[in-house]
Amino acid sequence: MPTLTTPSTPSAVWNRQHLLGLQGLSPVELRLILDRAAEFKQLHAAGHTKLDHLKGVTVGNLFFEASTRTKTSFGLAAKRLSADTVDFTASGSSLTKGETFIDTARNIEAMGVTQMVVRHSTSGAPHHLAKHLRAGIINAGDGTHEHPTQGLLDIFTIREHRGQIEGLTVALVGDILHSRVARSNIWGLTTLGAKVIVCGPATLIPPEIERLGVEVSHSLDDIVPRTDVINLLRIQAERQRSAFFPSIYEYAHFFGMNGARVQRARQDVLILAPGPINRGVELTPEVADGDRSVILDQVTNGLFIRMACLSLLHEARQC
Ligand code: CP
What we know:
Layout: H1 27-45, E1 58-63, H2 69-80, E2 84-89, H3 101-109, E3 115-120, H4 125-132, E4 136-142, H5 148-162, E5 169-173, H6 180-191, E6 195-199, E7 215-217, H7 220-223, E8 229-232, H8 248-255, H9 259-264, E9 270-272, H10 285-288, H11 295-317
Parallel strand pairs: 1-2, 1-3, 3-4, 5-6, 5-8, 6-7, 8-9
Helix pairs in contact: 1-5, 1-11, 2-11, 5-6, 5-11
The structure holds phosphoric acid mono(formamide)ester (CP).
Phosphoric acid mono(formamide)ester is lined by residues 67-70, 141, 150, 274-276.
């Protein structure tokens, strides 16, 4: 097996057995994950498509909420590291017979699962498991709280294209109020020295969000010319309990990225979107598929970020 040059844990750099969010991670910890992911990407390009860092380990993918990218990507990442995997989806499970969330997770743990990837519509659900189980827990998106591996893959993609994060201006546009991706991006990007602007209708910006060290804007047209990166966040209709803007048409008119706005942006602007995208709402098809879009790079990089997280958490458990 190829030897990694990023520090192997246990070490002073990484001793976490869970990854519940990017809040509180140090610049050194964030860079270690990014550097480890870059190494896995290089190894893959060199033909090392199957590594044995997780040989003998069983990873559980527990998805209590829908997913395409995150679930597939974690499953593939675990297999690329030679782990066995167990997939759980809420529909069709014994949750429908009244079994509790914690009992469900404990039963899956009892089958020998030592790392669990958990997505849940309730903020804090993975933290609850981290308190009650022995397995290492990775948050794959909890309610409106955090989606740490999405934040990491966004940051990795920006760094890959720009060389560094420090000094960049990154706009997060859209439904900041309900977006766990926004929070993970804010924690990770500000820790690594980027300036973050959150932009959207006033109804979709949480009160006092400036306390997280971000600038607030309600005009995409004002900020487009002065940003290096524009990350277009999905309108989280499934989490909205009331009408936050008059119509999708008006939202797209004021906050959607379109060809005219790309023309007014910096020539080298990067367009990101975590997906799933609503074509014609957060961005038009010409922007999603245009030459400034790195949306599919984000998906590709997600695999290597998840390999990095799984391997680091596994190494931390060995001490
Ligand atoms: N970006 C993201 O989390 O996508 P999925 O919901 O498809 O996993």
